[in-house]
What we know:
It is a single chain. The protein is an alpha/beta fold and 373 residues long. The chain has a domain at 62-188 and 265-371: D-Maltodextrin-Binding Protein, domain 2. Helices cover 53% and strands 14% of the residues. The chain contains ten helices and eleven strands. A six-stranded mixed sheet has the order 7-6-8-5-9-11, sandwiched between helices. The longest helix is centred in the N-terminal third of the chain and has 60 residues, at 2-61. The radius of gyration is 35 Å and the shape is globular. It starts with a helix and ends with a helix.
Amino acid sequence: MYIIYTIKMCQTNDDRKFGNQTNLREDRMKSISFRNVRNMALATMAIGLFSASASVATAAETRTLRMGDTLPAASSLAKTMKEWTETVEARSDGRLKIQYFPGGQIVGAKDSLDLLLSGTVDIAYTPPLREASRLALSAVPALPGLSGGAVQLTEAYLNLLQGTLYDVELSDLGIVPLMAILTPQYEIMTVQKEVVGKSDMAGLKIRSAGGVQGDTVKALGAVPVSISAPETYTALQRKTVDGALFSFYSVPIYKLDEVIGYSTTNANLGSYPIVYTINKSVWDSLEPDLQKILQETAREASIKTAQFSDDDAAANVEKYKDKIKPVEMTGADYTAWQEATNAVRDEWIKKNKADGLPADTLYDEWSKLVSGK
Length: 373
C-alpha cells in the first residue's frame, strides 16, 4: 500500500510538474500569438493610414482648371485645344488637368474676359477684337497692311504678348497669356458681288469681329456689322450682311462655302488673334514647373496650329474655287485699297496714343518682329 501510494504520489507530482510546464508553454504561445496579432493589426493600421495619407497628398497635388471658349466643338481648332489639354496632363504626370468646355457652354463671345476675371473659369478664349477698350493694343495683328503667313505672325505675336503687351496691358488687367494663334490674312468674302477694288465696297454690309476690323471695313467704304464667328453663317444666309471678313482657313469651320460666292486673295486685311489667357491669381498659385509646362505646351500647340492653318488656307482656295471664285486685285484698284488700309493703321496709332497708350512704339516693335528685323 505504501509503495502503491508512493508511486501514485510520484505520478501525481510528475503530472503536476509536466502539467505546469505544458500550461506554461501554452501561456507563452498565447502571449506570442497575441503579440503577433497585435503587431499585425498595428502594421495594417499603419499601412491604411499611410495609404490614406498618400491618397490625400495625391489629391492635393492634382490641380484641375476649367477652360471655356466659343469654338464649334467639332471644329479642327476645338480638337486642337482638346489635344493641348491632354498634352498638359501627360507632361505633368497627371498633376495638372484642364476641363475643356467648347461651343459656348460656359463662356460667350462677349463675356469670356469678365468670366475669367471673376474666377468662373480659369482659362478662357479672350479675343482682343471683342475687347476694344480693355485689350486695345493686343488687337495690333488685326491692322491691315503687313504681310506674312500664320506661322510667321504667330511667332511674332507670342513674343509680343509675353513681353511688351504683358507689361503694358495684360498684367494690370489680371491675366497671363498662354496660347495665341494668328489666322492667315483676312480677305473680303461676299455672297453675290465680286469685289475687285475699293469702289466695289461702297454700301456693302460686311461682317467683322469688331474693333479695328470694323474700322477697316468702314475705311474701305462699306458698312461694318459686328457679328461673332458662329453667327456669321446665318447672317450671310439670311442676307443680313452682304459679306464678311474671314480667312480661307475658316471656310470649312463655319461652312462658308455654302453661302459665299466670291473672295479676294490679296486684300491683306490683317489677321485675327485667337488668344487664350489664364487668370493671374490662378497662375500665381501654380508651381513653377506647372507654369513652365503650360507655357511650353501652349507655344508648341500655337505654332503647330498656325502651320496647319497656313496649309489649310492655301488648300481651301483651290478646294472651294468652284464655289468661291478667287479674285486678285491689281493696278489702280489695288493702290486705292492699300492707301485706305494704311490710313486705318495711322488712325489706330493716333487714337490709342490720345488715350495714353504707347501705340506707336508697340506697332514699330510688332512690324519688326513680323519682318524678323
